């Protein structure tokens, strides 16, 4: 599992996850994602376009980090999940906890619009 982060021009942090968020990949990403988002307020988009599998540990990682951002006044959104991953998110009800968007651009626009109303 790999994690890449980049600051987009509009102030949104794009976090790209690559691989399988299973028991092995999920643990590694949990530590790295938490280190990236735990101590600062962000508008963060997690790009799931290259995540091929999402297990319960991956779901937990996403929810815990989204809640941490919310507690700091930030926002985390998910973008571009592959069909299998999107189905898992929907079945687990994660789409009611963390906003899920069809692509990174739509997610960025929504985060920026929400930030303007705060």
UniProtKB/TrEMBL annotation:
NCBIfam families: ant_ant_sig
Pfam families reported for this sequence: STAS
Domain named STAS: residues: 10-111
The protein's name: Anti-sigma factor antagonist
InterPro entries (UniProt xref): Anti-sigma_ant, STAS_dom, STAS_dom_sf
Leader sequence residues: none
SUPFAM superfamilies linked to this entry: SpoIIaa-like
Native organism: Variovorax ginsengisoli
Domain of life: Bacteria
Membership in a protein family: Belongs to the anti-sigma-factor antagonist family.
PANTHER family (UniProt xref): ANTI-SIGMA FACTOR ANTAGONIST TM_1081-RELATED, ANTI-SIGMA FACTOR ANTAGONIST TM_1081-RELATED-RELATED
């Amino acid at each position: 599992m790999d994690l890449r982060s980049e600051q987009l021009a509009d102030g949104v942090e794009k976090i790209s996850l690559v691989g399988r968020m299973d028991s092995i990949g999920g643990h590694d990403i949990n530590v790295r994602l938490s280190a990236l988002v735990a101590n600062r307020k962000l508008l963060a988009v997690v790009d799931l376009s290259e995540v091929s599998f999402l297990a319960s540990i991956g779901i937990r990682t996403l929810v815990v980090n989204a809640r941490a951002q919310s507690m700091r006044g930030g926002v985390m959104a998910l973008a571009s999940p592959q069909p299998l991953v999107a189905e898992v998110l929907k079945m687990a009800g994660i789409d009611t906890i963390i906003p899920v968007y069809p692509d990174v651009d739509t997610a960025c626009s929504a985060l920026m619009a929400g930030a303007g109303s705060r």
